[in-house]
Design a protein that fits this description.
The protein is α/β, with parallel strands linked by helices. 36% of the residues lie in helices and 15% in strands. Strand 14 and strand 15 form a beta hairpin. Helix 1 packs parallel to helix 2 and helix 7 packs parallel to helix 13.
Length: 411
């Protein structure tokens, strides 16, 4: 077992001020059903008292001069603007000289001029969930009445642009839009989205008396892959096709989180996305009532670390249990992964997707392994070139000219 150093990274806990409450009912959403964990309390919104307790503890636990607060949902804008003004007052109260940044994730449908003025004036970064062109987006992202949401999301983006709010796109790649990577990518370029994060949707469903029940990685019996999940082959084709467009035309102009993180791993730096990091466990999540869980994708009773009313963030996030959770990402890799040429780039991806078996029948293989392996093999010559440029103090964007001159041979 290798050494795990939990204090090497700042304590980070994503906040759920409205729990799983949302005005949409996206078919693939992994979080809306978390409200069933708190079925005895339909309110499910964070109190001002708990908000203050969290902010004070979160700031007191930091060892860095710059602190990031991340507000997530559900839908974060289901809390009134007054709640976030209160949060900023409390941040100033407990900052003690630290610089504080805020980012918030929203589906964009509830944005108004007032919200956007607030985000602009207070320098908040806004992540907008949008899955590409209207046909792709409305396939799964609908409201509770089954009505599509694309038009409202685009109206929200127009308001963000009107008020010069910094925002990025956050997209889910599913069984449908994965077949159209160039249409997907060019849409984001067309709407002026220069910072794009996208993630593959992979979920398994267990039969449950209350309707759909998403399975945790350790729940296998009776589960089936959800129809909306992207396939490994789709994921590999999607990544390779989109990368080919980006690496020839857009390096240094459009920033794709997954590609940037891949390059970071190629040069031995910490990637910007946890799924490609060697270990995890440093990014927890706190629900509306103070319950803290190991990770946003592990909000299941068996991964609950405690509650802020009875334990501190430091006690929970740096507990032996959470350290073990984080280190297990590396320690539980099957032999097939350990022997893979691209282990340094993939690190087994997200533990939540490790429910398959290797060629030798060993458990713990990532469902998306085939797609990732194809992607890393495909991008290797370009990553090698960009790595050399970075180490020489030159911009990685030089790769585009090198491709035009025929200096890079595709794998």
């Amino acid at each position: 077992m290798s050494t795990y150093a939990p204090f090497a990274r700042p304590l980070y806990v994503m906040l759920k001020p409205a729990g799983a409450l949302c005005n949409l009912a996206c078919e693939y959403c992994y979080y809306t059903e978390k409200s069933k964990l708190y079925a005895n309390n339909p309110q499910q919104v964070m109190s001002d008292e708990l908000l203050e307790r969290f902010i004070q503890q979160y700031l007191d636990a930091q060892t860095q001069p710059q602190v990031l607060f991340t507000w997530h949902g559900g839908e974060t804008l289901m809390r009134p603007l007054a709640f976030y003004r209160k949060a900023m007052d409390l941040q100033r109260k407990y900052a003690r000289g630290r610089t504080i940044d805020n980012c918030i994730q929203t589906n964009g449908t509830m944005l108004t001029d007032e919200w956007c003025r607030f985000f602009h004036d207070n320098h908040w970064l806004v992540g907008v969930s949008i899955d590409g062109p209207q046909e792709f987006h409305d396939e799964y992202r609908r409201n509770r009445q089954g009505r599509p949401s694309f038009v409202k999301v685009m109206r929200g983006i127009e308001l963000l642009n009107k008020h010069q709010v910094e925002w990025n796109g956050m997209a889910v790649v599913n069984d449908y839009n994965a077949d159209y990577p160039l249409d997907f990518y060019r849409f984001f370029k067309d709407i002026g989205c220069r910072y794009l994060q996208f993630a593959p949707i992979v979920e398994r469903i267990l039969p449950h008396a209350d309707g759909r029940h998403l399975a945790a990685v350790d729940e296998e019996e009776g589960s089936r892959l959800a129809d909306f999940s992207v396939s490994p082959a789709q994921w590999g084709e999607f990544l390779c096709t989109l990368f080919d467009e980006w690496v020839r035309h857009d390096v240094g102009q459009y920033f794709i989180q997954l590609f940037d993180s891949t390059l970071a791993n190629w040069v031995g730096q910490e990637p910007g996305v946890c799924t490609l990091a060697r270990t995890c466990g440093h990014a927890g999540v706190m629900e509306w009532n103070g319950d803290v869980y190991a990770c946003d994708h592990f909000v299941f009773p068996q991964y609950k670390l405690g509650n802020l009313h009875t334990q501190t963030l430091v006690e929970m996030m740096y507990s032996p249990r959470q350290q073990q959770f984080g280190q297990a990402k590396a320690d539980s890799l099957p032999a097939q992964c350990r022997q893979c040429d691209y282990l340094f780039a993939c690190n087994g991806e997200c533990p939540k997707n490790r429910f398959c078996r290797t060629r030798d029948g060993e458990p713990g293989l990532n469902y998306l392994c085939e797609g990732y392996h194809r992607f890393f093999a495909h991008v290797a010559p370009y990553m090698d070139y960009m790595k050399r440029e970075l180490l020489a103090g030159r911009p990685p964007a030089n790769v585009m000219e090198a491709i035009r001159r025929g200096e890079i041979s595709p794998a």
